Amino acid sequence: FSVQGESLGMGDPPLRITGAPTGHTLRPQMTDHPPRPRIVFLCSSPIVLSDAVAAPVLDLKLEYDRVTEAARSGSCPVDLSFSFGTAQNLTEEMTAGCTALHYSGHGVSVKQSTALAFEDGKGGTHLVDSTAVSSLIAVCPLRLAVVSACSGQDAGDAFVKAGVPHVVVTKRAQRLQDKAASSFACSFYGALLKSKTVAQSFAIAKHSVAHASPELLTPKAEADKFMLPVSYTHLRAHETPEHLVCRLLLEKKK
Questions:
Q1: Which of 11, 14, 39, 47 is the most exposed place for a label (fewest CB within 10 A)?
Q2: How many C-beta neighbours within 10 Å does residue 162 have?
Q3: pTM of this prediction?
Q4: What is the pLDDT of residues 31-82, one digit of tens each?
Q5: Cα gap 109→116, rounded to integer Å
Q6: Rounded to whole angstroms, what are the CA distances from 191 to 21, 177, 215?
Q7: In whole angstroms, what is the distance from residue 202 CA to residue 39 CA?
Q8: Which helix (H) or strand (E) covers residue 113, if one does?
Q9: Are 156 and 229 in contact (CB under 8 A)?
């Protein structure tokens, strides 16, 4: 899937990528260096959704390629971890500790709400609702959550209510194109890892989808599907990856 400990320069590698092709999480090695932001990507593409309905095929490889390419060009040291989108991997990754969580997959309507479609390990779907997400975040805090799924706003609201300062989602009742998702992710993380704030990175990513994605039939409409929940506006819009490192160091001292 990828290599661990990939060095792009002298000293501590600015980018470490871990992958879990067998479904087991690979954790970053312990070092004497200051803690680095760790971004976990959970990629879920079950074959069958609920009620034996075939799931639309997602091009998660495209998103992976574009995100890792953007990370390589970034100036901020970071660890990227890619895992299959199972509920077990979600729990393990959150327990191991991560700064940001990125979910790529399907949003499924359940009782006037949207659940995230995780894989059950057998080709089927394991739906994880907002209550389960909130209870996990309560004991394993995050700084950033990105829900790259159709109608991801309900799941995003759960992250906000659980206290996650920065949340990026797609609006309710909106179907998101694969290429729009990969374009947004590439630009968002590319900007974030060049020391832009979350708010700035979000604006840059939306602009990229709307004006620099000729492969999309309706680029402006796709860009409009991404949003920051309303409650985000009074939180730390200034926070950059460097702030995250400082915050981690202070929390460790406590």
A1: 11
A2: 19
A3: 0.77
A4: 555 677 889 999 999 998 877 788 888 888 888 888 888 888 888 888 888 9
A5: 9
A6: 28, 21, 21
A7: 16
A8: strand 113-119
A9: yes
Q: Which tokens sit at 69?
A: 């390419």
Tell me what the mean pLDDT of segment 177-198 comes to.
91
Say what angle helices 87-96 and 130-139 make with each other, to 10 degrees.
20
- How close are the terminal C-alpha atoms of the chain, in Å? 37
- Degrees (nearest 5) of the Cα angle 5, 44, 186? 60
Give pLDDT tens digits for 204-222. 999 999 999 998 989 999 9
Location of structure tokens 């799924």: 149
Q: Are residues 216 and 226 in contact, defined by beta-carbon separation less than 8 angstroms?
A: no
